[in-house]
Amino acid sequence: MRKLILASNSPRRKDLLDQVQIDYTVDPSNSEEIINETLSPEDLVIDLARGKALEVADRHRHSIVLAADTMVIYDKHYLGKPKDTDDAEKMLHTLSGKTHRVITGVVLFDTETHRKLEAVETTYVTFGFLSPEEIRWYVESGEPFGKAGAYAIQGLAARFVERIEGCYNNVIGLPVYRVLDLLKEMNR
Description:
Layout: E1 3-6, H1 11-19, E2 25-26, H2 41-57, E3 63-74, E4 77-79, H3 85-95, E5 99-110, E6 116-127, H4 132-141, E7 161-165, H5 168-172, H6 176-185
Parallel strand pairs: 1-2, 1-3
Antiparallel strand pairs: 3-4, 3-5, 5-6, 6-7
Helix pairs in contact: 3-4
């Protein structure tokens, strides 16, 4: 069986793969994430994940590379990882009382056959209304940093989530069920 290479150093993605007992090796991608706003959000996450997969694939033979890219989208705005405290507060204020999309593009690339499988998973997350004090408290916790949309659904931000429609693991950063389906299709 060919080795699975995770093209990410995300602790959340590693935790999800560990949870379902998938053997893998980590080799994070060094590809630059360039946001091409002319692409649809779905095409953009696939484009970014594809770039990561192909960059890592160059370093491995007889392997399958798994790459993913997750974005938080509200009203056609991409909410990436906050740059600073003000940015995190603005993002959380934007999401307060509203529904947003979390979209993940997943790419599997077989370095031996050059076969490539791609999928997009979308989850809708609705936040309750957040007071300025709640936002400040959450930002001061430090949890929003390094997280798309400035929150971690599996952490303290769980208290903000009123409703979720779709794959919970997708919001964490990897739609596990979809990944397992793709691995089956790839005969791994």
